[in-house]
Amino acid sequence: MSLYKTAAKNLPISDLSITQRVFAGLTDRLDDIVLIDGVDGRQFTASTFIDQVKRLAGGLLAVGAVQGKTVALMAPNSPEYCVIFHAVAWAGGTITTLNPTYTSNEIHHQLQDSGADLLITIPEILTTAQHGIALLEGVQICVIGEVDGISSLSKFYGAPLEQQVVIDLDRHSVVLPYSSGTTGLPKGVCLSHRNLVINVDQIATAAEFQQGETAAAFLPFFHIYGMTVMMNMHLACGGLLVTMPRFDLDLFLRLCQNHKSRRMWIVPPVALALAKHPLVDEFDLSQIDQVFSGAAPMGRELSDAVATRLNCEMLQGFGMTELSPVSHVTPISGPRSGSSGLAVPNTQCRIVNPETGEGIAPGGEGELWIKGPQVMIGYLNNEKATQDTLTHDGWLKTGDVAIIDQDGYMFIVDRLKELIKYKGFQVAPAELEAILVAHPNIQDAAVIGKPDDEAGEVPIAFVITIEPAPNEAQIKQYIATTLAHYKQDPSGAFRR
After folding, report:
1. Which of 109, 199, 278, 292 is most buried (CB neighbours < 10 A)?
2. CA distance 258 to 214
3. CA-CA distance, 419 to 13, in Å (whole number)?
4. Residue 39: which of 91, 88, 76, 92 has the closest Cα?
5. Under a CB-based contact definition with an 8 Å cutoff, are residues 241 and 217 in contact?
6. Are the CB atoms for 128 and 102 separated by under 8 Å?
7. What is the mean pLDDT of each run of 10 residues along the chain (496 residues)?
8. How far apart are CA 274 and CA 282, in angstroms?
9. If we measure between CA atoms, which residue out of 106, 72, 74 comes closest to residue 484?
């Protein structure tokens, strides 16, 4: 068996919860600003953040809304998002994070599957949220802000909870994001406090994170990339986050310029904008020394184009929700064009023949398997999917075809899995096909991914219709009420 062990020195396994780890990185800088709302400019010091987390945790605990329960959080990035996340974790609860562009059907599925008792959202998407919970018994809803007749999150703040509620660091699922995994419909990924804490430390070490780093955070906190790399690592490791509710190129460039960011954390579609959009030339980005891309593989040509235009290093990493999410990072001290990097500390890799399970020598193509303390507990309510993804001795089968060279650098070359990667988001063909065939005049459907320069891939559907046959516009209108926008890109097409 060809076993690739990271050359990096192993890190100690912490006995802190994820919120204790974040607080540990804040207590020696209580007067420092650690969160800024990039839209309205509101600022939060470390002291204010800690106080709000403890008071919200205390209030939620007092009304029995969190300990041993699941709280659903559906909102865009904001300082309040960070407070809510850590208040639930501090009070011994589980957070399941939802994409704020979800439809009511998607909300219903995730809340029902996760068993959430409370949904926290924002006024702008309240109606959709209410439709999503309409048929679910016992689910309460509250908003960040004020809406007549709806509970406000502000009313849950109470006496501060001074200590972390005791939990099992290895077995308690502190966060439950949903992922299609290597194939199939979205599944709840059970991630422990230990998973999140070690991955924060692994990334900070491998990415050579520096005290005082300021980043414009458009990567959504509901997604594991934004959750771990942006929210938790920057708070825990001495950084400052300027939150953005969604990606806007002008605002992103302006924040990076004004806050003198040394690093951009992005996904491949943003790399395309950085390489080609004329707006980039209007900003002074001379302080940027690296751009780091994740969530989907990026070709050497685009990577080199960004590096050339911004006069910086363009680096990539590899991860997936089931890895909390990072297993590989390209270090700035050892960049390699087109590579997804070196294994982070405490991480082992194999390249395996997916048909025989036999190891493949350096330079050969095969499925990438990962082993380390960042590997998930398993999938919620889905033992079969867990067994299909995790071996009995702890290896996670990524479903990605990769090469590891003689120096340990990993390159993603293909995917075994059927997932479509649209702008870094996972789109499961099976989910789209199930929605399409639910239409009374669609007999059968098949969905594939089509390469796209901007999005990476866009979904294309082939349908067999029944008279009276719906046209393409009617089908798109039908799925628009059922699926989030990234699963039904308007540039995609239907074929009959």
Report:
1. 199
2. 10
3. 33
4. 76
5. yes
6. yes
7. 78 97 98 98 98 98 94 98 98 98 95 97 97 95 96 97 98 94 79 98 96 97 97 98 98 98 95 93 97 85 91 94 97 87 96 89 91 98 95 95 91 79 76 78 82 84 88 87 74 57
8. 12
9. 106
